[in-house]
Write a structure and sequence with these properties.
Elements lengths: L4 E6 L11 H4 L4 H14 L3 E6 L3 H11 L5 E5 L8 H10 L3 E5 L21 E4 L4 H14 L9
Parallel strand pairs: 1-2, 1-3, 3-4, 4-5
Length: 154
Amino acid sequence: MGARTIWVLSGPNLNLLGTREPEIYGSATLDEIERSLVDEGARAGVEVRCFRSNEEGALVTRVQEARGTAAGLIVNFAAYSHTSIALVDALAAAQVPAIEVHLSNVHRREPFRHRMMTARACIGVIAGLGPIGYRLALQALIARIGAAPVEKSA
């Protein structure tokens, strides 16, 4: 791990993707999204590691562990994005570039979703583009760390 490792951290209820309100979140499962990120990362010479929890404390611990270990974070803390000062503080302390991703356009939804507390500690936010938002975040972090594609032997 290290300079060429990107972590994908997912929060509560994202394990229900594909069946939970598909009209809002789409039909892709979290496993499908994560597999595509791992595959794309491998093509770029980057290891992608994924972690999901319904527990705020587990997510805080994982963000803290990223310091000095991960080159970047893709985070979708789900509902915790709107409420967690602990995750904001963990992101700031980790000093790892993070991009926050939301499948839905939170600004077209309930007013309590319009404020994303954790976004203030991220270098960017992608919302409303569905699963491609994760891919765009991965591409942005790969460009930031300067990872080169791995040559495939014939």
